User: Which sequence fits this backbone?
DNA sequence: GTAATTTATTAAACTACTTTAATTTTTTTC
DNA sequence: GAAAAAAATTAAAGTAGTTTAATAAATTAC
């Protein structure tokens, strides 16, 4: 159960057995069934979550009831709402499961203890955050510079595994277009 | 000259005099005149840059020659291209000065030395990054959920100081619309 | 395994935003 | 401070993407 997360960590920092054990001792295992929520708007996000199985989406619902997906998460990814987690303020986001999902959770309190006891984790979470930041900056630029068609083509090139797992409805909510328009784009692209 | 940056750091971590002195010793002062570049596409980004005076923009130029601004930076902000800085790969971004600007620079090498000598800086840059990450996630969501008009109104509400300092041309390149359309929006909003 | 629900497709009318181009206003430069 | 360059405005025609609605296909639920 802890294999994937230990490998994830080993990519960035080296832990001895005692540090590994301590880390594992602060994790909680949670199952989120398909369509169940990990977080709802207005909640305080109490945990950061490492996905060991399944698929989650982080999204908002606008004033017209339309969903907008800011990120997907699959195995080996961390998800949560960092703002709410850190500030203890209510989140603006929903997180729910697109497939039956299992996560390993760490609370704010435990993370603070972990930073104190094993300061290497400061580095680890800085590195995780760096990667996430770079990916986000890229996405902002893509949203500014590219048409919906280009963004769709880039998505299926960059995340072919993910494209297989999510519906077009979810993908359109991530790309920032309607499902109808995505369907039109696909038709047009097939005919080439 | 080092006042602002020391205050910026003191918001997040506490340094003793020796640590302050060491930190200052690894910084380089650089002046970037209006319209001059701090970084060009294809360069390797060798420094992170703290602005003590002036205004910078980070942007790409697409295949049609159109500029897209991913961020502005003013006094008290860090700018650079983290991806290129960390990976030593060529950047996709341009950074240039919208006003005569002064920055304090730290190289990758010196930052690594700093992390080793004063590990508290791991925490500092993690916190800086957290704030930047949260701001970016917000922007992604705004770009998905809001119309250009709403994004414009939000911008002038959230960054009134910045709006005074940048031209509409720059703002439109940040909002993801044409200068012509921004002008139309402004006209429409004034008449309310 | 069938009914119910959700997702995807198609078409047609619509709208937010772009493009082009001409004019005015502001800023920069020497 | 005059000339040149850049930015902003306006209008009109064009297009990428939306909306609505009807139908088909796929998935879910009991």
Assistant:
């Amino acid at each position: 159960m802890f294999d994937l997360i230990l490998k994830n960590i080993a990519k960035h920092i080296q832990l001895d057995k005692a540090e590994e054990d301590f880390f594992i001792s602060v994790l909680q295992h949670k199952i989120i069934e398909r369509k169940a929520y990990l977080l709802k708007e207005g909640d305080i996000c109490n945990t950061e979550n490492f996905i060991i199985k399944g698929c989650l989406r982080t999204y908002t619902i606008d004033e017209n009831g339309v969903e907008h997906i800011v990120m997907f998460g699959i195995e080996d990814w961390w998800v949560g709402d960092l703002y709410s987690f850190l500030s203890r303020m209510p989140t603006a986001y929903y997180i729910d499961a697109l497939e039956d999902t299992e996560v390993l959770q760490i609370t704010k309190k435990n993370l603070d203890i972990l930073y104190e006891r094993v300061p290497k984790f400061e580095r680890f979470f800085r590195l995780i955050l760096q990667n996430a930041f770079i990916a986000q900056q890229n996405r902002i630029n893509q949203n500014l510079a590219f048409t919906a068609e280009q963004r769709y083509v880039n998505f299926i090139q960059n995340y072919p595994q993910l494209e297989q797992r999510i519906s077009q409805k979810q993908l359109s909510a991530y790309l920032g277009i309607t499902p109808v328009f995505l369907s039109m784009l696909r038709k047009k692209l097939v005919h080439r």
About this structure: The first strand of chain B starts at residue 28 and ends at 32. The interface with chain A takes residues 60, 62, 66, 68-70, 82-83, 86, 92, 115, 119, 122-123, 125-126, 129-130, 132-134, 136-137, 139-141, 143-146, 176 of chain B (CB under 8 Å). Residues 147-149, 177-178, 180-181, 184 of chain B lie near DNA strand C (CB under 10 Å from a C1').
